[in-house]
Amino acid sequence: MKYVIFKRKELIVPVITSEMATHSDLKLEGFEPVSAGFIYMPKGLIIIDNRGSESLGLKPNKELDEKYITKMVLDLPASTFLDFNNEYSNTDAKMTKRQQQVAASMVIYNLITQWEDLETQKR
Most exposed residue of 22, 42, 91, 95, measured as fewest CB within 10 angstroms of its CB? Predict the structure, then answer.
């Protein structure tokens, strides 16, 4: 699948679509695309590919993209999609230690939830 991360002021909106669409086909009025790439979700895992979007001329920001896509998949409240630290303003910037901890926590939570779902299905 393909994805684009859009931003307007502090609000981050990830959008995922099939590989049949081009990244540049995805548009949200008033939002600017800040990151784009390819995503795979085998058995609920979120894997961001290294490839970016040729049509938008954007590369993925793997850590941040995974963080916001995980929030979307977990259906977390809209307040968690606010980027007050302006993380996407400099996509070459490293994540702070706290941001790395939050992103890692989201991934761990996602994995535990998926494991619990699989265990429930086995019963």
Answer: 42
